[in-house]
Amino acid sequence: MADTRANANLTPEIWDDQFFTEYLTENRYAGEMGTNENNVIQVKEDLTKKKGDRVNFALVNKLSQDAVTGRGTMEGNEEEMGTRSFELAVDKRRNAVRVAEIDEQFSAISLRDAAKFVLKDWSMKDTERLISIALGTCGGIAMNATDIAAAGNQATLDAWLVDNADRVWWGNNAYTAQTDFSAGLATLTAGTAAERLTIDAIDQMKFMAMNRANPKVRPIRAEGNGKHYYLMYAHPLAFRDLKADTALRQAQREVSLEMENNRLFKGGDLLWNGVIIKEAHDLYDYSTLTALGDSSTVVPAFLCGAQAIGVAYARRWRTKTEEFDYGDKHGVEVSSIYGVGKMVFGKGAGDRDDLVDHGVVTGLFASSTAA
Prior knowledge:
- The chain contains 11 helices and 16 strands.
- By secondary structure, it is an alpha/beta fold.
- The strands form 4 sheets. Strands 6, 7, 8, 9, 10, 11 and 16 form a 7-stranded mixed sheet that branches.
- The longest helix is centred in the first third of the chain and has 25 residues, at 111-135.
- The chain is globular, with a radius of gyration of 24 Å.
């Protein structure tokens, strides 16, 4: 009698490998994720082969010294290569569902198989959520209405603004002192058209990234056409205001050819002056700033270059099944050990003194309508 063998595509190891591949390729930020320094979201798996609870990302600043020419002496005139580090902690994150045998019997589909795909969607959403929250973090303070308004957070927000003064833009350039976060928000209460996300604001934020920021925010080099781009993740209300701009609409007619086969560009994205603008839906839930002492709504847009966000894995996502109640109930769990954070590097005397957002220029804008 021949033995029945398990289908290779159904074995746990193969399924988990496929699960992780789909998780990486199907999540909203997939086109921006990669393992090298030329990615908006840099992924590291250093801890998958060794023990530890955190991963270090390295930043090597560009050399700025003039060349030694002719018979000039090189020895003793070497330039110091400035290096900084960013430490990202990992933690275990998991979810599970449980299915009873009687429900399996009554269902027209395999609930246990369906559970795995539901959990895959949950794991992708978990990562997307962490990335969206990380983009808005200001010195460890989450960009939501409650935390931004809390009296106990104002000193931290002000210190973050001072350290990041060369990479924060307020709508219509309405606040230039860059010392008081709440004062900056107060300049956006009128909600005028100039205070919203506009093509002029995108130009100004790109100029900050390329010229004023120290260290500068490096653009991403696209593999398809070799051109350099920044990516902007815009709050849905800001994205809606931007789309109303007639000059932007006209410019989109020339976009399709340039963006052909560009993994950074997806359907629904906009392109302006070398900046790919993406609607970040999660920001509506996490970073809509309302009830800040008036009736206005303030929303963010994040212009990102290389190494804006770090993702570190100590263990990839994997599934596990468990039986309960004498085999009557079957549980399916998905879990991973990983962490997500905005990359920050020190620009002070010490490695982690005066932390700045390495790959992000933060824009804060009024919205045309309340949330």
